[in-house]
Task: structure prediction
Amino acid sequence: MDETELRRLIAQHEADRVEFTISTTDTEKFSEAVCAFANDLPNHRKPGYLIIGVDRHGKFAGLKIDDETLRNLGGLRDDGNIQPLPLLTVEKLVTAEGEVAIVTVQPSALPPVRYRGRVCVRIGPRRGYATEQEERLLIERRVSHAKTFDAQPCLGSTLDDLSQPLFLIEYRQQALAPEVIAENARPLTHQLASLRFFDLKNDCPTNAGILLFGLDVRRWLPGAYVQFLRVGGDELTDPVLNEREIDGDLLTVLRELDVLIGAQLTQYPVLESALRERIVEAYPRVAVRELVMNAVMHRDYAATSPIRITWLENRIEIQSPGGLYGEASAQNFPAQTSYRNPVVAEAMKALGYVNRYGTGILRAQQALARNGSPPAEFRFDAGYFLAVIRRRT
Result:
């Protein structure tokens, strides 16, 4: 954005596509503004702008915008509090009257977008929380935009194919703010639809709804399971020590993976000096967990093949169907992340299996380095993604 465009926006004063603030630290306000612009309730289909450094009267505040402020604003995308992930850019503009930071937010293709479980919207200069009617409007608008597989309707399935207690008792309590649940008198289908688990137009669950709450997930998504193989050697031809298939709803799969992986991990002491030793892991728990979670989150659920975890004596191989997705490429991996399954990613964040987006591989590599292990290796093509963790020697 250049100064001419900035002054044009300022001349409009605060409207439903522009918000001003002179605070550089009010993360709550910034997040609600980003959420409201992403929802684009007036349906402008144009970006919204959060401008830091201009007051509500359109006057420059004479701020100095430092790198930490820009990093914090950029972090609004990945901290997981705004779901699904917003598409935003952050830039700094220097004028004679002061510096400003500009957050440009694109309308979401998967509304309603929530900040900490609440749907924020903007109508004119007012920003607040969506009414039930406004939220329904956003849900209906999403149908024509749904492009990712997990957001598409699972045609032929019905509400009876979902475990309602799993949604109402297990998931909803973690995904929504308590006051939202207390005020909610809508039918169950509308509650599911507001979180992208039900398609009202086709009167059926979405693929994500089946993955999260399905009573028989593999009936609808045959490849939605994990195949685990423990081998007593360095080659696949060596004796098999343990073999399992882990399937069911996603929460069950994640819990069983946690237990199964934990049971395989071992620790042992290594000498650091003549009088001192340190406990290390053959495979660091954090690294294994992060790469397994990465496979579950980013795999291609339209494929009929499972995630395969092969645990050999000298390495672990984690292979998932589907190569790099979207903007991610061999040239920018792993710095660039695109989400093949944004609804699944949101659910894993709500359930506590993902702490922050875009950092899983970095955390895995850091854990391996701390343990004295070789860095993880990655191979991929259009049809698969393979992560390899070598045993510490």
